[in-house]
Write a structure and sequence with these properties.
Layout (H helix, E strand, L loop, with lengths): L1 H10 L7 E3 L5 H20 L1 H16 L1 E4 L21 H22 L1 H14 L3 E3 L1 H9 L12 H7 L7 E11 L2 E11 L7 E8 L7 E7 L4 E7 L5 E4 L11
Parallel strand pairs: 1-3
Antiparallel strand pairs: 4-5, 5-8, 6-7, 6-9
Helix pairs in contact: 1-2, 2-3, 2-4, 3-4, 4-5
């Protein structure tokens, strides 16, 4: 907290003062963007593992028992000050700051670092001394997605993470058939711990044997197991779901 507090407050010169929320439904943008800006400073000073440690603390706070099963389940982030209805700031703080920071981090992982920083610059430029709504932020962020993103307008992403609640348990299993140079890797991802209509996308990273550029496929998760088959020349070195904390999720 002490490592990011000053940077967070300085960042409000941009997120909150120069660019400000349109309504109380959009106030999360100011806090989430200021907090993630502070994490970018922390990352520069101490490396990505320090940022992951902070994100893990936020996840634990969201999964802590709350008025409705978990803190995170108390309501969507767009409820803003209405999340304070329990008479305490615990729920409001965990969701507005913690989940908000996770949402921005997931967008960064989806865009890539260079596009993410360009998005922040364009957000400041386009909405300088103007209010910005959550929907306007969604539309702007979608402009910086890489080609062939499975959710090009970010509508599913915002329905799941901004307008909805839930943190899924995602479990990965793999099977391999065939021999080099024709190896079939089949990946199964099972989702649980959320309602049947909970939908999101998670990046699957396959590292080829001997190094080289990782192969990335997006897994569409819902109540049914998701299956993806990747053809390789040899057995993979590593298969990982949502590396770099790319998705707010539980795992065993």
């Amino acid at each position: 907290f002490t490592s990011i507090m000053h940077a967070h407050e300085v960042a409000h010169q941009w997120w909150g003062n120069l660019v400000f929320p349109a309504t109380y439904h959009d106030e999360w943008l100011s806090e989430a963007l200021a907090n993630y800006s502070a994490l970018l400073v922390l990352e520069r000073q101490r490396g990505p593992k320090a940022v992951e440690a902070v994100l893990d603390d936020y996840r634990k706070a969201l999964l802590a028992p709350g008025p409705s099963s978990t803190i995170e389940a108390s309501g969507p982030i767009t409820w803003g000050v209405r999340l304070r209805d329990d008479g305490r700031l615990t729920v409001w703080h965990a969701i507005i700051y913690g989940k908000g920071t996770w949402i921005v981090h997931m967008l960064r992982r989806r865009m890539g670092d260079a596009a993410f920083l360009r998005m922040l610059f364009e957000l400041r430029k386009r909405y300088e001394l103007r209010p910005v709504s959550t929907e306007e932020f969604r539309a702007l962020a979608a402009e910086f997605l890489p080609p062939h993103d499975p959710d090009p307008a970010l509508e599913s992403f915002f329905d799941t993470w901004v307008y909805g609640t839930g943190i899924p348990l995602l479990e990965l299993s793999t099977s391999i058939r065939g021999k080099a140079p024709a190896v079939a890797l089949t990946v199964t991802v099972r989702q649980s711990g959320v309602p049947d209509d909970f939908v999101t996308e998670a990046p699957l990273e396959v590292r080829p044997a001997g190094g080289g550029k990782p192969i990335v496929r997006w897994v569409h998760t819902n109540s049914e197991p998701a299956l993806i088959t990747v053809m390789l020349k040899a057995r993979p070195q590593k298969v990982e779901l949502a590396p770099g904390m790319a998705v707010l999720m539980k795992s065993r």
